[in-house]
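User: I'm preparing a small set of examples for a lab meeting where we compare how different chains pack in three dimensions. I only have the primary sequence for this one, and I'd like the structure in token form so I can line it up with the others. Please keep the answer compact; I'll paste it straight into my notes.
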Amino acid sequence: MPAKAKHRRPKQHPIARKLAFAGTGGAALALPLISTTTAGAAVTQPATVASVTTLTPAAAPAVEKAAAPLTYSVIGGDTLSKIAVQHSVNGGWQALYDANKSTIGGNPSLIQPGLKLSLGTAAKAAAARAKTISAEPAAPTYANNLDGWIRESLDVMAKHGIPGSYNGIHRNVMRESSGNPLAINNWDSNAAAGIPSKGLLQVIDPTFRAYHVPGTPMDSYDPVANITAACNYAAARYGSIDNVNGAY
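Assistant: Understood. Below is the structure token output for the 248-residue chain.
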């Protein structure tokens, strides 16, 4: 991207490059206790009942839902230790056994498929967190080649509102550098001035610094940084890299 002269195809650099990219919970505790003793609590513990009834209609179901234990159905190959670890049971397998002793029987090593075990409220919270994490989309991965560099640059451009298409970038890259991220023009007027055009889209250092896009390396030879800065420059001057069909 010369400042004063048109580009000609730069000499190709032979070097191959591999990039590195880089007592306050009373309300919650009181609800399970009043599930079988509500009437008695209303007479003998008016203070406790009052603290519970101050919950809004919307808040009460939320507390009850959080306090509800999670149930697990035993399958072949399960052990109490394995179940406790998988479901983050507080107190480990011993607590799991104590909570389900009447169901399991006297030997904690013998649990039959089909048994329904209560895992407790902590396990329910852990399961909810795991569900939230699994619902998050995985970070995209990009190939370390021209296709991957263009696609990663397009994602960065989209975040910053920089226009441009895959075809527009690819066409200009092939004209300017033939896809060599280390290409450099050592013979034109810019080179004579000490600011040779560099990289996939042949950007001189002053232009690269002026149009560098945050989130990419401050390195004009970096493929993604070079493409993104060049497209940012082209957008400012020509509306889009798609509108560039020659020296720019």
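A couple of notes for your slides: Residues 4-9, 11-67 have pLDDT under 50 and may be disordered. The first helix runs from residue 26 to 34.

User: Perfect, thanks.
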